[in-house]
Amino acid sequence: MGRLLYELGHVDEKTRVANERGSSKVGKASFSWAWGLDETTEERERGITMDIGLQSLTTPRRQITILDAPGHKDFIPNMISGASQADCALLVVDAATGEFEAGFDRGGQTREHILLVRSLGVSQVIVAVNKMDQVKWAESRYDEIRRLLKAFLGQSGFHPSKIGFVPVAAMLGVNLVDRSYEGAPALTNWYKGPTLVDLLDQLEPPARDIESPLRIPVCNVFKGQSSGIGVSGRICGGIVQVGERVRVLPGDETAIVRSIEVDEINVPWAAAGSNATLYLVAIDPIYLAVGSILCPPGNLVPLATAFSARIIVFDIQVPITVGASIELFHHSRDVPATLSRLVATIDRASGSVVKKNPRRVSLCTSAEVEISLRAGTLSAPSAVVRPIPLEPFSVNKDMGRILVRRGGETIAAGKPYLPAKSRQLTFLRHRAQRYCVRFQTKTPLRSIRYGLKG
Question: Which residue of 113, 167, 371, 422 has the fewest C-beta atoms within 10 A of its own C-beta?
C-alpha cells in the first residue's frame, strides 16, 4: 500500500527518501514502502504490521479510507478490529512459488483472512496477485492462483460479480495506477484488464443505516492535543453531532462531543459508515476503553452476559462440545466465554432444525448455541462477569456479528439474537403472573409467595 500511496501523491518524495534510508539503516531495506503505514518503532524493527494503519486515498470517483490490517497470525485480534470497520477488502497474495501455497493451504492465513472478512459483513473483495516479477510474469501462475482463490471465495460466500483480480508488482509500481509497464513487457502480452486503482474506483459503497440509533464501537482511545479525550471508530448506525451528549457502555458515564474529525478534517457531524475521531469532554478517561460503545442516553445498547446465537462452524479439526472455552470477538472487544449449550444443528439451506441438543458440532455445520461470558481466568469462577454491549443482528447488522476463536484458530462466526437469560426471565415473569391470577381470589399472601417462587 505504501507504493500505491506514493504513486497517487499521498506520500511525498522527502518522506519516501527518509523511509528508504531509515529502513536500510536497520537492515530492512525491502520494507521501505511499508513504513508509510507501519509507523511504530516496533513494527519497523520487526518488519511486520502489528496494528491498524489508517490512511486515505482518492480515485476518480471515490474517496477511500484504507485500514491496513496485520497479516501475521499473532495479531489476528487487531486484524479483526480493522476488518469489522471495513466495507470492502483488498487481499494481497504472494505469487512466488511456495509462498502462496503456505498461505492458502489448510490453516494458512490467506484462508482465515477470507473467512474473517466475509463473516464480518464484507461482500466485495479485490485480490492483488503481487510479486509477479518473481515468477517472470507467468500467465499460468496468475491463472492458477486466480482459479484456486475464486473457488474458495465463492465457497466463503462472496458473489462472483463482487470479486476482482489484478496482477501487480508493487515494489516496481507495475499495474498499480497506470498501464505503463516499463520493464514488464511480458505482462502486456497477455493482460489487458484494469489496474488496481481502476478496480478500487469500481467499488460500490453499501447503503448506510443513518436512521437507526447512534452506535460507535471504540477501536482506539488516546489523549487529545488540547483538552478532551480522543476516541476513534466506525459509526455503525445513526448520526453524531458536535455538542451531543453520548452514553459510554458498559458503564453509567456520559460525555459531550467537543469536536469530530473525518479524514483529519474537522466536521460538524458524521454519519453511519464514516471512520471518525471524536474528542470527548466531561468524562474521566478511566471510563473509556477499546471495545466501549457510544450511543444516545435515551437509546442504549442492551448489555448481556449470556445470549443465543446462530453460528456457522468453519473447517475445524476438533469438534465443538458443550462447555468449550472460547474467545468471543465483537468489533474491537474480545472476552473469554463458554459455549454453555448446543441447542440444535440447523440446515444451512432451509433453516430448519436437523437435530436438537446435539452432543457436538463438527466442521461446516450451522448451529444454534448459547454462549455465556466468564471471568478472565478459569481459576477464579467466583469473579464477577462483566456484561458487554451486544445488539441482535435483526436490529443492527454491523453490531450483530460475532467471531469465535479457540486455541489461536477462528472456529466459527455468528449472529446473536435474544439474550438467553432474558428469555428465561421473561418466561419466569409470565409464569409468576399466571400463578398470581390463579391464587389471588382465595389467599393473597399465598399468591405473592408462589409468584416470587415461580
Answer: 422
Residue 432: count other Cβ atoms within 10 Å of its Cβ: 17
Helix (H, G, I), strand (E, B) or coil at 429: helix
Q: How many CB atoms lie within 10 A of CB 207?
A: 8
Judged against a pLDDT cut of 80, whether residue 256 lies above it is answered with yes
Lowest mean pLDDT, pick from 219-228, 330-339, 413-422: 413-422
Cell match 398470581: residue? Answer: 436
3-state secondary structure of 441: coil
Give per-residue pLDDT as tens, 151-183.
999 999 999 999 999 999 998 889 999 876 666
* Separation CA 209–CA 99 (nearest Å): 40
Rounded Cα distance between 346 and 132, Å, is: 43
Contact status, residue 130 vs residue 141, Cβ threshold 8 Å: no
pLDDT of 382: 52
Q: What does the alpha-carbon distance between residue 267 and residue 374 come to, in Å, rounded to a whole number?
A: 40
Q: How far is CA 201 from CA 9, 60, 69, 238, 288, in A?
A: 16, 7, 21, 26, 37
pTM: 0.83
C-alpha distances out from residue 48 to 28, 73, 101, 327, Å: 11, 11, 20, 24
Buried b (16+ CB within 10 A) or exposed e, 362-387: eeebbbbbbbbbbeeeeeeeeeebeb
* Per-residue model confidence (pLDDT) at position 95: 96
Cα–Cα dist 72/79, whole Å: 9
Q: Residue 147: which residues within 8 A CB-CB, separation 6 or more?
A: none
Distance CA 330, CA 388 (A): 9
